[in-house]
């Protein structure tokens, strides 16, 4: 039988989680659109809780001798610690699908499907792709976990249109995707892209491309994004290196939601990331994106990200360079910045992290932009607004971000694992491993809220009486717990 203090501790944990969920069922909740999470604040708190748990585990293990044998794991990064501590991960690749955090946590990719090995790097026919190529694999209707037989550069002829339930897993090989169009996720769900170099993506199109075994369609000219997410959900982009594309490195528009962008290395680009199609496009109100553990590095100018509408959680990223601003937005997005490091450039007029795009202060003063535990260096400063001017959203000290000082550690493996994090060597000089040069140029299933669809109707804000009730209840639980521990 469990001791009374253990029982009370478990009860406290459940009670605090319940308070977090209840406390945030206010103006941040919009239940009028499908596929969005009803309590985005609870998701943000869950991410920070997972980070704090991983950091605590590392601190505990650091006192033991076997931590030296686990140098590739127990970093405090909950995504990496989830799978890299398994020395047999190569034989259990689909374990990765259980490791996502944040709004894209429900992205299953090709979990449960066959392992498909890409053995041919060519991309010659967009209508009838050759078996063994990446294009052939990604258009199939069945779930597939796609891996690569060897190092390869895949120079695309046109857009690579990815079907639902696919994982592109580059672990164990050095895989470059470049050329025309690059990666397009359009009206799909459950896609994971992991450990891939993406660079030098150029506009292409006005051609016919196969999107599935049964559908071939005409495609107009693309923008030249590295990864384009269009009307899609349950998407996870992890441990990729992205640079030198014509338009955005990662763009998510047209009602896309349930997205996590994590552990990536962004460099050498102007418009890094766009989240939202248009200020007046109502479906983007349901956009929810987690941006975690990324390194925003050399040669970046702006849009890390640039947001319209929606809820964006920016947590534990390392911003080491921008020339204009880091985070921008319009049309009243919620921006929750927690535990990041912002290192301002030398330019005295570019110290501000934030930018409200083409909007007067009288209109953006009530936008919910917040900074919580961020580290500001070289004169960087974040201009909060709305609820961000107060500490109302920091509901429980047990889940407050304690990881800001560890951002460099949490992001030290950002980018492609086992190779250069920065694509500049590939872009300027071609592949560094002896391959030929290519030239240069410019679902749910978690048993909780994830993946659920909700009907319309926004719950009222909790009253002052309700807030007082929860506060007193929380104090009472702590009092009981402390007295039992003393006994």
Specify the biggest β-sheet.
10 strands, parallel
Spatial order of the strands in the main sheet?
Answer: 1-2-5-8-13-16-20-24-27-30
Broad CATH class? Mainly Beta
Overall mean pLDDT: 82
Helix and strand content put the structural class at alpha/beta
What is the approximate shape? globular
What proportion of the residues form beta strands (DSSP E)?
25-35%
Q: Roughly how many Å apart are the termini?
A: 18 Å
User: What are the segments in which pLDDT stays under 50 over at least 5 consecutive residues?
Assistant: 1-31, 392-399, 429-472, 477-487
Count of alpha and pi helical runs? 8
Q: How many structural domains does the protein architecture include?
A: 1
CATH superfamily: Single-stranded right-handed beta-helix, Pectin lyase-like
Rounded to the nearest angstrom, the radius of gyration is 23 Å
Q: What is the CATH topology? A: Pectate Lyase C-like
Beta strand count: 31
Percent in helix: 10-25%
Question: Under the CATH scheme, which architecture would be assigned?
Answer: 3 Solenoid
Describe the protein's architecture and organization:
The chain is of the alpha/beta class and 487 residues long. It has a single domain, classed as Pectate Lyase C-like (3 Solenoid), CATH 2.160.20.10. The chain is built from 8 helices and 31 strands. Helix 1 packs antiparallel against helix 8. The chain is globular and about 55 Å long.
Secondary structure: elements and pairs:
Blueprint: H1 4-23, H2 40-61, H3 78-83, E1 114-118, H4 134-138, E2 144-148, E3 152-156, E4 160-161, E5 166-169, E6 175-180, E7 183-186, E8 189-194, E9 197-202, E10 207-212, E11 215-219, E12 227-230, E13 233-238, E14 241-243, E15 250-253, E16 257-262, E17 265-267, E18 269-271, E19 273-275, E20 288-292, E21 295-296, E22 300-302, E23 306-308, E24 311-315, E25 318-319, E26 327-330, E27 334-338, E28 341-343, E29 354-356, H5 361-364, E30 369-372, E31 375-377, H6 407-410, H7 424-429, H8 464-486
Helix pairs in contact: 1-8
């Amino acid at each position: 039988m469990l001791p009374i203090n253990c029982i009370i501790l478990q009860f406290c944990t459940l009670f605090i989680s319940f308070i977090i969920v209840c406390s945030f069922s206010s103006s941040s909740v919009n239940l009028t659109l499908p596929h969005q999470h009803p309590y985005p604040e609870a998701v943000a708190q869950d991410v920070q809780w997972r980070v704090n748990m991983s950091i605590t585990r590392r601190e505990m293990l650091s006192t033991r001798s076997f931590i030296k044998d686990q140098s590739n794991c127990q970093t405090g990064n909950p995504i990496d610690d989830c799978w890299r501590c398994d020395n047999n991960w190569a034989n259990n690749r689909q374990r990765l699908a259980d490791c996502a955090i944040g709004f894209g946590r429900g992205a299953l990719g090709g979990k449960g499907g066959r392992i498909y090995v890409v053995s041919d790097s060519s991309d010659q026919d967009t209508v009838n792709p050759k078996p063994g190529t990446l294009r052939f694999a990604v258009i199939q209707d069945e779930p597939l976990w796609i891996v690569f037989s060897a190092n390869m550069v895949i120079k695309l002829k046109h857009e690579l249109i990815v079907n639902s339930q696919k994982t592109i897993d580059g672990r164990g090989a050095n895989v470059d995707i470049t050329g025309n169009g690059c990666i397009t996720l359009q009206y799909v769900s459950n896609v994971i892209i992991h450990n891939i170099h993406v660079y030098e993506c150029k506009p292409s199109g006005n051609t016919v491309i196969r999107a599935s075994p049964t559908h071939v369609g005409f495609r107009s000219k693309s923008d030249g994004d590295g990864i384009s997410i269009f009307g899609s959900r349950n998407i996870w982009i992890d441990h990729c290196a992205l640079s030198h594309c014509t338009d955005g490195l990662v763009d998510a528009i047209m009602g896309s939601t349930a997205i996590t962008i994590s552990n990536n290395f962004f460099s050498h680009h102007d418009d890094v990331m766009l989240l939202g199609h248009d200020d007046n496009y109502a479906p983007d109100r349901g956009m929810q994106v987690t941006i975690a553990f990324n390194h925003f590095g050399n040669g970046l100018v702006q849009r890390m990200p640039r947001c319209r509408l929606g809820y964006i959680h920016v947590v534990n990223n390392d911003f080491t360079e921008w020339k204009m601003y880091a985070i921008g937005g319009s049309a009243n997005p919620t921006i929750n910045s927690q535990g990041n490091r912002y290192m301002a450039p030398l330019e005295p007029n570019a110290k501000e992290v934030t930018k409200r795009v083409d909007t007067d202060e009288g209109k953006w003063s009530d936008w919910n932009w917040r900074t919580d535990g961020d580290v500001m260096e070289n004169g960087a400063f974040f201009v909060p607004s709305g609820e961000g001017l107060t500490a109302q959203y920091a509901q429980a000290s047990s889940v407050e971000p304690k990881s800001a000082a560890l951002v460099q550690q949490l992001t030290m493996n950002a980018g492609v694992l086992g190779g250069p994090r920065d694509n500049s060597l590939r872009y300027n000089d071609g592949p560094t491993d002896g391959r030929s040069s290519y030239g240069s140029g410019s679902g749910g299933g978690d048993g909780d809220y994830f993946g659920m669809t909700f009907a319309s109707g926004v719950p009222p804000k909790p009253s002052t009486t309700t807030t007082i009730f929860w506060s007193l209840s929380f104090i009472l639980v702590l009092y009981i717990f402390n007295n039992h521990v003393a006994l």
